[in-house]
Design brief:
By secondary structure, the chain is of the alpha/beta class. The strands form four sheets. A five-stranded parallel sheet has the order 4-9-10-3-11, with helices on both faces. It has a two-stranded antiparallel sheet with strand order 1-2. Strands 5-6 form a two-stranded antiparallel ribbon.
């Protein structure tokens, strides 16, 4: 059979599956269909509705949300490659994500923000859990302040300059401009709907300023077009979001993947005196560290800690060690949530999904047992091993 014929056959099977599935949805409750039709999948794509019934099952994020929310930046590279191959972005519903979502559902947003810290060994799924939580925040119409990998700024800066307002502070204008573009793409529709205005004047230079009452989107657009001022626009943006949240105009979720990179002792950046600087001497770090302080309400912070994000401290995965004394005291109090290897149920669902997507073929129970024995359920190792199957 030719490749074209096989593709047409697969497409016809998929259409038949979707027709049967939609027919069942009209007759039976979703949880019954999930159990009887495909035990490893759930058709509940709304993370707000996820609960223990959906635990250990795969759910698919609608493609239009993936395009708006993640922009290929908020997705780990190896998972992005897999999602492209599968032609869908699907996540495993795991207990840590459900735990954070339940906390966010029950939180008193009139009080200062709660901080949730995801930690665990490298490759156990912290970034994937963060993707699930970001999807929840997007559906709940929370403004999302997402920093995918701050250590990339410090290791591979696009451009280095002195901040025009404070020459002692290092500025990364191009990286700041790219982050503003990412923020706008995630929140454009919601910001247009809320129509937030800035509450004070911001003087960028002798001739240019943002006046009180200017649209927040207009100020963001200025920072994107004039990257020299992008870091200052980010600082102003985060201050305005704090004030809007305190006033009850919006809710905000801030998420940083690899937060401990802000507390590294050194970066790959030198100042004018050819001395290596630490992240706290960089304008972007100061803006986001200030935003994560618990001096505002109507929001939450979900942060991940990763040994790979900070080259100074890699011998342990515990928050106190990764953050150091100053970082831990700055973040405290927070709710720690441990990410561990897959349990047997999660592993079996993932293997069924891989088999359905034809990622692994002709594998029997002994083969699956061998994969489990080799990886002990470590998510990243499972993905690496299954590449060649």
């Amino acid at each position: 059979m030719s490749l074209t014929s096989r593709l047409l056959l697969q497409y016809s099977y998929r259409l038949r599956w979707q027709k049967q599935y939609s027919t069942l949805v009209n007759v039976f409750p979703k949880d019954i269909i999930d159990e009887q039709f495909q035990s490893f999948r759930t058709i509940e794509s709304n993370p707000v509705n996820h609960n223990e019934q959906h635990l250990n099952r795969i759910y698919t994020i609608p493609s239009h949300i993936v395009k708006t929310l993640y922009q290929n930046i908020g997705i780990p590279k190896n998972f992005l490659t897999l999602s492209t191959a599968f032609n869908e972005c699907s996540l495993l519903v795991r207990n840590p994500a459900l735990e954070v979502i339940s906390y966010l559902e029950q939180a008193d947003y009139n009080r200062p923000i709660n901080k949730y810290v995801l930690y665990g060994k490298f490759g156990t799924g912290k970034s994937m859990t963060l993707m699930h939580i970001l999807h929840y925040a997007f559906i709940k119409q929370m403004i999302i302040v997402h920093v995918p990998s701050p250590n990339i700024w410090f290791r591979f800066p696009k451009e280095i300059a002195n901040l025009y307002k404070s020459p002692d502070i290092i500025d990364l204008p191009i990286d700041a401009g790219k982050w503003l573009l990412y923020f706008k793409s995630q929140n454009n529709d919601l910001l247009s709907k809320l129509d937030l205005k800035i509450s004070r004047d911001y003087q960028w230079n002798i001739r240019e300023k943002a006046s009180n009452g200017t649209s927040l989107l207009e100020m963001i657009e200025f920072g994107i077009n004039r990257v020299r001022y992008a870091s200052s626009v980010i600082d102003a943006l985060l201050m305005e979001l704090k004030e809007a949240s305190i006033a009850g105009k919006c809710k905000v979720l801030t998420a940083v993947d690899g937060y401990n990179a802000f507390w590294s002792d050194q970066t790959g950046i030198r100042n004018d005196a050819k001395v290596w600087v630490n992240p706290r001497q960089i304008s972007l770090t100061l803006s986001f560290l200030n935003f994560i302080k618990a001096d505002w309400c109507n929001g939450a912070a979900v942060l991940t800690l990763d040994a790979k994000a900070c080259k100074d401290r890699r011998e342990s995965d515990h928050p106190r060690y990764l953050l150091g004394k100053d970082g831990f005291e700055c973040l405290d109090p927070f709710i720690p949530i441990l990410l561990e290897n897959y349990n047997k149920a999660e592993f079996e669902s993932l293997m069924e999904y891989y088999k359905e997507r034809k990622w692994i073929r002709d594998i029997d129970a002994d083969g699956l047992a061998e994969i489990w024995a080799l990886t002990i359920g470590h998510p990243l190792e499972i993905r690496q091993i299954c590449k060649s199957l």
